[in-house]
Amino acid sequence: MNGLVKQEDIMDSTTRRFVFAFRFLMAWVFLYAASHQVFNPMFSAAKFLNSTKTFHDLYAPLTDPAFDPVLTFLVSYGHLAIGASLLVGLAVRISSLAGVALMLMYWTAHMEWPYIENHNNFIVDYHIVYATVCLFLFANNAGHVCGLDRFAAKLAMVEKHPLLRKVIG
Fold it and tell me: What's this model's pTM, rounded to 2 decimal places?
């Protein structure tokens, strides 16, 4: 295995259980969001971003009606891809970072500084918690814990290509 230490040798069983649980919980979050976007013809990412307050000038260019179908597709199917990746544990290092980026975008899009969505959430809300969980999954190579990344890492193609090794972990 090219001198790499197995993930199983590093983590204790409790940590592995948390990694597995967090991966499935985050998969649910992204797949549930995708179900409300992919199967909803009325969903519009541009409409959502048009209602931003604190960072409206940042998101305003993305609300152009010509760009809406592309943005809506990327957001909807991005949720689906991230959720599927987390569910089966394949390319989790990429999907977890994409999840962090998406959660930080939502965090800023919901912001009316210093509140997020409403006055019950002061600076920190569930988007920050989800982003932190995604970083935890990235840092712990979560796809290797009962996931397909563990098997993919052993493929000759992955072992030969440094970029694929980084993606699989």
Answer: 0.88
